[in-house]
Amino acid sequence: MRRSNIGWLFLAPATLILFVVGFIPFLYILYVGFFDWNSNAVDPTLRWAGLQNYRNLVFDATFLNSLARTLVFAFIVVVSELLLGYVLARALMADRLWGRQFFRTIHTLPIVVAPIAVGATWRLLCVPGFGIIPYYLKLWFGIDYNISTNAYHAFGTAIVMDLWHWTPFVTLSLMAGLTALPKEPLEQAQIDGGNKLQIFWYVIVPMLKPVLLTTVFIRLMDALRSVDEVWMLTKGGPAEATRFIGLHIWINVFPKTDYGYGAAMSLLTLYVTIVLSWLLFVAMTGRKGGAQ
Amino acid sequence: MATIELDKVDKHYGAYHALRDISFDIADGEFVVLVGPSGCGKSTLLRTLAGLEDITGGTIRLGGQRVDNIAAKDRDVAMVFQNYALYPHMTVRENMAFALKLRGDTLPDRNAKVDKAAEMLRLTPYLDRYPKALSGGQRQRVAMGRAMVRSPKAFFFDEPLSNLDAALRVDMRSEIKALHQRLGATSVYVTHDQIEAMTMADRIVVLRDGKVEQIGAPLELYDRPANIFVAGFIGSPAMNKLSVKIDLKSNAARLADGSSFSLPPGTRARDGQDAIYGIRPDHWILSRGDQGAPATVELIEPTGAEILVAAQLAGQRVLCAFRERHALKAGDTIALAVDPATAHVFDKQTEQRISP
Fold first, then answer.
1. Least Cα separation, residue B171 to chain A (angstroms)
2. What is the CATH number of the domain that holds B288?
3. Which among A8, A147, B21, B150 could disulfide-bond with A154, CB atoms 3.0 to 4.6 Å apart, if both were Cys?
4. Which range marks the domain in which residue B292 is found?
5. Per UniProt, what is the membrane topology (chain B) (predicted)?
6. B1-5, B89-93, B105-109: which range is least confident on average?
7. Residue B329: pLDDT over 90
8. B76 to chain A: which residues are within 8 Å by CB?
9. Distance CA B32, CA B154 (A)
10. A207 part of contact set with chain B, CB < 8 Å
């Protein structure tokens, strides 16, 4: 009995922090979501709105487009980062690679740069009439690259920026996973007659699954709430071409001070994220819910 | 099934010379055990045979075909690893059928072969389990089943019993031997345990520092070890190695205290040569009367089948194993004699055998 009390005591600080910064704000958002509340409105107090916010959301094309755009963005970056990250991980683990330690060190540098700085840097690289990327694309390939006017260029640049920033994280995590794999099953697979592709698909991928799953979840959730980098790069534009859901919510809650509606958006987005993660989990593990 | 021929096989890891000029042939269906202390190169040699390591010189032939330049996957050999190396994400059945699946066997074909092997290895009730739900012995049998279903050219075992407890090891030892007799497959088996080597092998290859020390049938190695290393390595408890001087006038090996043992007939020795006189513990004769060299009993260990007696003989410790239940106690003086025919004499310098 005393033992378990001590256990709770040790857990208490973490539980308390989680409760204060996680659970209370969640309840607060849930509460605010039922009200019409805009501090710049004629009546800046909370007015009961019931489910009206949610009803509006379902018909809000800007919100739904933003959500769909975010899902496309997240899908593209997560898949690309996985593929790229795996290739890089294998390359950085190769014995033959000259200067391996050096490359291993510098390839992780983007991870430590703050998103806001990444966005600012890429803005400087890409800004029309000033950045070196539009300049050389024009000079060498004759491409009129302009993230301020071309929606595809802006969206593409947001993707490339995310790849630059977060692929090293995937590489690191896969490298850790690959290093920890037991060597013998891989050797056994060679003796069993497997070629490189078969060994990769039938042995490495299944054994790497826990690491893959963790990495995908971390990256997916990050990608779904990408705000500051895109804000620095394009401010969500041109038009709404790069207005991802996090940014959309932020614009509604802060500049527009539409708290009630923003809260409802946040909750719906959370709901979508949870469902998506659950579907992904089932797809990747073959288990139905009840995560172990 | 196939023969294996090694010709001047060499292996370097950078400056480290792991295998030195290894040449021997393995007959079709033979069970050869590679044995030696840790770091002698026995596992490396097996891995080069399997294709998991390259060699830096020489050739390896499998069934007459040169294989040292082809990949492991194309050699058609099976291997059983010390820690079983089962695929953790596959059931027993999938583990056993994996190689068959890779080479494109049909599902009914695969199932038939797996079922047959599983029955032979008493694994049928476990076919749908994952490796983590099996005991060590069962995992070991799955690893063997996985090798069996393929009917490969050769079986390679890399210390397959080292992770099992003593009782299970003895069981599995006879099980592997029985399987080999049944399948008649060419097998190479690596172990550091000389009992395993003795009991299982048709022929034993003793390795030290990447070199072959001796190749021969188990009893040949036991009865006529080619050098001091093999003499000490094969046999348990180990052979007694007494430092002696050869006295050709009286045809004897003389100990420091002046007592002596007769040389085996036909020993090629010089007078006054420094030599090692080797006697297996069970070859000592406890002599009554004044024959034999006097020794002082230090320790007595009855094992049931025999009595192990540690004694001091001319300043050297010797171990004797007597089947008779002599009434001895520590401090007794005994006289030890030897039948020269059972003794082994080695040159102290070259460590090579000089008795016939």
1. 24
2. 2.40.50.140
3. A147
4. 237-347
5. Peripheral membrane protein
6. B1-5
7. no
8. 193
9. 11
10. yes
